[in-house]
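Lecture 7 notes: from sequence to structure.

We start with a single chain of 150 residues. Read the sequence below before looking at the structure.
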Amino acid sequence: MPLEYQTNVRIDKGQLFIRNRELFDKVMSAWPDCEAVLTIEKKHATRSLQANRYWWGVCVKLVSEHTGYTPEQIHDIAKQMFLPKHLAVTGKNGELLGEYVVGGTTTTLNKVEFGEFVSKFKEWALDKLDVVIPEADPDYEEKRGTTHAA
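Now the structure, written as tokens:
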């Protein structure tokens, strides 16, 4: 059983609505009776579609082509290196059975956090692989003839 659970909610006129309530209830029913902490934080703007295309179409693609790994594998490697999530697995009696590091998620990163993640990846690619990843083209959307809200 995970030691934490995170889900998206919406606040409307002072009322809290849990998205995917059915899954939330299922997860909570598996938890033992215990004290817990509920934290609510306002969501921040996530990365733009343009930033996402740059990540997958330039950064990940160049390293994938250089290494022979799939884009998904490169994405997973980057998350493990630059968004590590430390997990501890315990038995029923609380005894530590193992500690693991897996990659976190990029989907909840705001624009600044995602920019830092991409910068670290680009530095690593240059330093360790000699792969030069060009800067994002700020006029990319205009050249394509489309615009997307950030």
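Confidence is low (pLDDT under 50) at residues 140-150. Keep this in mind for problem set 3.
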